[in-house]
Amino acid sequence: MNTLKKLSVLGLFVVGLSACGTDPKSAAGFTLPEGDVKRGKAAYVEYGCNACHQHSDVPQLESALAAELSVPLGGETARVRTYGELVTSVINPSHRIAKRRSIEVADETGNSKMVTFNDVMTVTQLIDMVAFLQESYELSPHHNTVYPVYWHPEAQDK
Ligand code: HEC
Question: Which segment of the chain is annotated as a signal peptide (predicted)?
């Protein structure tokens, strides 16, 4: 290997390392607990997500709104490719919109037309809903973070 090649390999290694650990805002280690798909589907209907979305399992509600706004969820999309992006699109819909500024899905200020449920939805409902939606998306493999056990209640008795 010549010096130039060696240097570029080292460079890639350093870039890789910094991507993993040093960014304090890194999403590394972010994992929601396992959700319940059935309860997730119920919450999806309860919050009226189907007012604006079509889903293979839950058809969109018929309304005047549906005629002008219909965003399909699931499959293989360019917008939601990872678990992180799926969670983000539910709790921070304008995150991606800000970059896209698409006319049909965003308002004049560039914010998503998707309403926010962050003040009403429980964390458990979010977890369940992500589990429900995750089944219909073709996401890149996501490996849940494995945390070491620092304290175990049973270990105390031994
Ligand atoms: C008032 C209409 C509206 C409602 C209600 C709504 N959404 Fe959305 N949603 C949108 C629009 C518009 C987009 C596309 C633009 C964007 O990414 O914000 C979107 C995008 C999404 C995406 C990303 C889609 C993709 O594949 O890129 C997900 C996931 C999603 N919504 C989930 C939900 C869930 C879960 C609920 C119910 C808790 C919900 N939405 C309720 C309008 C809505």
Answer: 1-21
